[in-house]
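User: What would this chain look like folded?
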Amino acid sequence: MKVSADPKPTNIQMVDLVRQYHGIEDEVREAFDRIIHSASFIGGNEVEQFQKALEEYLDVRCVIPCANGTDALQIALMALKLRGGDEVIVPAFTFIASVEVIALLGYTPVACDVDRDTFNMKADQLQSMITPRTKAIMPVHLFGQCCDMDAILDVANAHHLYIVEDNAQSIGAKYTMHNGETKSAGTMGNIGTLSFYPSKNLGAYGDGGALYTNDINLGAFIKSISNHGMTKRYYHDHIGVNSRLDALQAAVLNIKLRNLESYTAARRKAAEQYDRLLNDINDVHIPVRFSKSTHIFHQYTIRVPTDAREKLQEYLKLRGIPTMIYYPVPLQKQKAFEGMIKTPVSLDVTEELCETVLSLPMHSELDSVQVEYICDHIREFFKG
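Assistant: Here's the prediction, encoded as structure tokens.
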């Protein structure tokens, strides 16, 4: 295939939030004006509306908004009342926050490997990793699709373990259980967590996060922890934190939540075009869809030969095409966690992925001309 003779697409972004804003600008301005004139910046109607809308969207009983996705993970673990040294199993191939909160609370992170095709937790390793100190499993629904939750739930139920689902990257993904029931990502364990960092599929215009659960009592405890351990104003029953979603961010999220399905459809359309144009390039491995889960494409991540990745990245950069590497260093090799993470199983796949993955531009405003331009240049690179 020859590189398109059409003019080079301009301003290709990894995530184009400016173009997305143009579609909701009037609603956002009106909402911000309303909030500023009411001076109701913390809590209030906007946050309550978003909480209820998200509960309905996820089909879950309790949503507790908070300040960011990392806080959501920390609060979730605090709500489980684990003890120092208790073990939490977490994938080695994920963003640092998943392990950071485990270490911060004095628990022991235990790293498992991931599947080469889906990038998600290898459920078949879990059974061999259980010890008397294992108390929880933290599956991370990475890049936009669910882990093998049936298998993870089987292990957790057999050993009476908690499950905290890190769903920062996969809001909107659906999982089909072994009994045919469909569940939203993050609603199958004890607690699900979300990040609303601006680049997420459902992103605020600042930081934001949420926790959710179907356990009403657990939800009330989580809400208390997120607000200084209070159940009644100035009466503190628990050690908590200060982690609240502000009204301006809630207003943005309310607007974007109404558009989330159309945003997801646009991402899937771009992913399908990537698939068609890249599938026959021998040195490019396109993302594999897990049969039990839908994919909402937070990232479109390919795998390429190790010795080609840096050269391909530079080649694309010179042609106005940004790329990112999520993630270049396995968590067990990060300096911050030296000697802290237990590694009872082989992490060979994680180490391989850290050397071969490359994420291409993916967002709701990505158009077919841009995707074709990106793919044309990837093809040209591997043709040599």
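The domain at 260-383 is CATH 3.90.1150.10 (Aspartate Aminotransferase, domain 1). If you want, I can go into more detail on any region.
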